[in-house]
Specification:
The complex is a heterodimer of chains A (about 475) and B (about 230). By secondary structure, chain A is of the alpha+beta class. Chain A has 14 helices and 21 strands. Chain A has a seven-stranded antiparallel β-sheet with strand order 15-21-20-19-18-17-16, with no helix packed on it. Chain A has a five-stranded mixed β-sheet with strand order 5-6-1-7-8, with helices on both faces. In chain B, the strands form two sheets. An eight-stranded mixed β-sheet of chain B has the order 5-4-6-7-3-8-9-10, with helices on both faces. In chain B, strands 1-2 form a two-stranded antiparallel ribbon.
């Protein structure tokens, strides 16, 4: 048997409670953002007055004649829902949280009868002050429909079709066009839908109609998918003596850090923050949240940062308890190809890039070649993120060393021409010259017209120069 | 008596063989390939370096502005990005399209823009410390001996090659570099004789090993760098 707990317009109810406003006769709307937002949820009174989801706040307010408008806080709503699920863990260990506001609890094997189960669930969520409806049923669809039929409904497998029969088609989450089509055929309730012959109905409305028809007949094979419990990784040392010196605290901390990091590695996670709780003999407790630039499971790094944070902290009495808790867990596994050569540790690389940005002031970049006419436009820089090689090291190819142009800061130079060929460049005689290569670019925005030359000078320098108008410029040197 | 003569001849023969081998080795013409070497991708240079630049060391590529140093470095970066990751610390003067033509995988080449000597040293320090880069290149900058000592130790720990490229190694770099190669262009190659219609085809350069931890200095080779 399943127990369904449903809170209608959950996000709206949470927003109401968050603002300390009790449910009243006044219609209420929930918008996705404060300015120029759209309605994402509304209560029955607002719906009855003509407001709908997707309307702008202005449209909905005009329709309802000045309803209360709340702004959705998804993080808060999610946190409240998680707290409710944690509270429901006391009722059943298997909870399927389909969506915020609707949870299914597997009650088979739980002591007590249906009424006792619902009473326990009500007591568990009572502190949250949200209007929860409970029902017991044989499968998810029937149980959910039972909450709609009435709070506290208990429905056995045999009673399912009878319970569903008077309910409207909207229970099936159909789109408006399908509901209209069904209503044109004179089908307005689940009971009427259930009486249709299965095969012809599915053939007429497509494969999705099979599920609608099954559900209307109280058949729902959707399995219960228990939610994953949040991983908690921590280590503590209490009642193992007291520490009056910093070295003793660091020693204990090192042991705890090793334990936490070992657990993190086993779970394939890394922690972006750790919370250190220190308890003193006189009862004082201090909590220290230590964040890392990048989530880590490296005990040495963790300990170094914590030591730096602890430097200079004073305690009124010796410390007799320590607890280290890993927070903000992130995926810590390093993707590794099965048959490839070992790739650099992505964590070490990420850390190096962060440090480089802090040290140099600019982030590390990678270059990308793009088609362009001008030399200086033939490449772009973007952030460095090396792709993971899954096929190992590429085979060695024959090296093809080519002359490398080094871009210099563009500066004006003096060039003397003879017979339209550069003869003297910056007081050096030209030994060899190639060019000119005419470049006409950017005529549509900032026109550039120039002649480029490669010149070998008598002192061995090989330069790329160009003439733009009457002036000559140095662009780069080959090396 | 006859036995003694045979033994003396035999010893003389062994000595001559050993001496000949040492002479050849001293001349730097034959060096056995070093498994720990980081190849430059240029066969002639790898041959005189015994397979390439030793891993875990500081190397210096010296020469005037147009001497082919960057072309040799591009070969090393091509090899480095083929096997792992490479990094350049400079002021943005390297031209990525030419690096790509030399075989460098630009996706695996980190480019750090550092304008001060201390900034370059700090960047090289962080890159080597991460142990993620097989080759780290940066321009020769005046740094204290202590910094070079630290960078050399980090390169050794990381098993990476730290390549400094410049006109002339500073006294400190000359001391801490395990390998120094001096480059000079011997001949510039053009695609044709008709000057206004030709293009730069490449150049031949002379690379001379002026310091190496395993071979005597003086080994040199002529390298052809051509499009």
């Amino acid at each position: 048997m399943l127990l369904c707990m449903h809170i209608a317009s959950f996000a709206l109810q949470v927003a109401r409670r968050h603002h300390g406003i009790a449910a009243s006769d006044e219609p209420a709307l929930l918008a996705d953002k404060p300015d120029r937002g759209r309605i994402i949820d509304l209560d029955e009174r607002a719906y009855a007055l003509g407001a709908r989801r997707g309307q702008t706040v202005l449209q909905a307010s005009a329709a309802t004649g000045g309803a209360q408008v709340f702004v959705h806080d998804s993080a808060h709503s999610h946190a409240v829902w998680n707290d409710m699920l944690d509270a429901l863990d006391a009722v059943s260990p298997l909870i399927d949280d389909t969506a915020e506001g609707t949870a299914y609890l597997e009650m088979r094997g739980i002591d007590g009868d249906a009424q006792a189960w619902m009473d326990r669930a009500r007591a568990a969520v009572a502190p949250f002050g949200l209007p929860a409806r409970m029902a017991i049923g044989p499968n998810k669809f029937v149980t959910r429909a039972a909450t709609y039929a009435g709070d506290g409904t208990t429905c056995s497998e045999e009673e399912g079709p009878a319970l569903l029969a008077p309910l409207p088609l909207e229970m099936l989450d159909l789109d408006c066009r399908t509901i209209d089509r069904l209503q044109l055929l004179g089908i307005k309730t689940l009971g009427e839908l259930a009486q249709l012959p299965h095969g012809p109905f599915v053939r007429r409305f497509g494969s999705a109609a099979k599920q609608w028809h099954d559900r209307a007949r109280a058949i729902d094979p959707t399995p219960l998918r228990p939610r994953a419990h949040e991983l908690q990784i921590d280590a503590a040392a209490y009642g193992e003596g007291s520490a009056a010196q910093a070295e003793q605290v660091y020693f204990a901390l090192r042991i705890l850090t090793d334990r936490v990091c070992s657990d993190l590695e086993r779970a394939g996670r890394s922690a972006a923050t750790v919370r250190l709780s220190l308890q003193c003999e006189n009862g004082d407790t201090k909590e220290l949240d230590v964040g890392f630039a990048q989530a880590t499971a490296d005990p040495r790094l963790m300990l170094d940062v914590m030591r730096a944070k602890l430097e200079g902290m004073a305690f009124g009495a010796p410390i007799d308890g320590l607890r280290l808790q890993a927070m903000r867990l992130e995926e810590g596994g390093v993707p590794a190809p099965l048959f490839g050569q070992s790739e650099p540790d992505s964590q070490a690389l990420g850390l190096a890039l962060t440090r480089l940005e802090a040290a140099v002031g600019t982030p590390g970049r990678r270059a990308r070649v793009v088609p362009a006419h001008r030399l200086e436009n033939r490449f772009q820089y973007d952030s460095f993120a090396p792709p993971l090689r899954v096929a190992g090291v590429p085979p060695a190819t024959r090296a093809h060393p080519v002359p490398q142009l080094r871009m210099l800061a563009v500066r004006e130079i003096r060039v003397a021409m003879r017979r339209n060929v550069p003869e003297v460049v910056e007081a050096r005689h030209v030994v060899e010259c190639a060019g000119p290569w005419r470049l006409d670019d950017g005529w549509f925005e900032s026109p550039v017209a120039r002649d480029e030359y490669d010149v070998l000078l008598d002192d061995g320098l090989l330069w790329r120069i160009y003439r733009q108008g009457e002036r000559w410029y140095l662009r780069g040197a080959y090396d | 008596m006859a036995t003694t003569a045979v033994r003396v001849r035999s010893e003389n023969h062994a000595f001559e063989g050993l001496k000949a081998g040492l002479d050849v080795r001293a001349a730097g013409r034959i060096v056995e390939a070093d498994a720990d070497a980081f190849p430059t991708g240029i066969a002639e240079l790898d041959r005189i370096l015994g397979g390439g630049f030793p891993r875990g060391t500081v190397a210096a590529l010296e020469g005037p502005p147009t001497s082919g140093r960057s072309a040799i470095l591009a070969g090393m970066l091509a090899e480095g990005t083929r096997r792992g990751l490479g990094a350049i610390v400079d002021d943005g003067s390297f031209y990525p399209p030419d690096l790509e033509r030399a075989g460098v995988d630009l996706d695996r080449l980190l480019i750090i823009n550092a304008t001060t000597p201390v900034g370059s040293a700090r960047a090289a320090d962080i890159l080597l410390r991460s142990r993620a880069f097989g080759v780290v290149a940066f321009c020769v900058v005046p740094l204290r001996a202590a910094i070079w000592s630290r960078l050399a130790a980090l390169a050794h720990k990381a098993g990476a090659v730290l390549v400094a490229i410049g006109t002339q190694a500073t006294t400190e770099l000359a001391y801490f570099a395990s390998t120094r190669v001096r480059c000079a262009i011997e001949r510039v190659l053009w695609s044709s004789d008709r000057r206004l219609f030709c293009e730069l085809d490449g150049y031949e350069l002379a690379a001379q090993v002026i310091k190496h931890r395993r071979i005597a200095p003086g080994a040199s080779a002529t390298l052809r760098i051509a499009n």
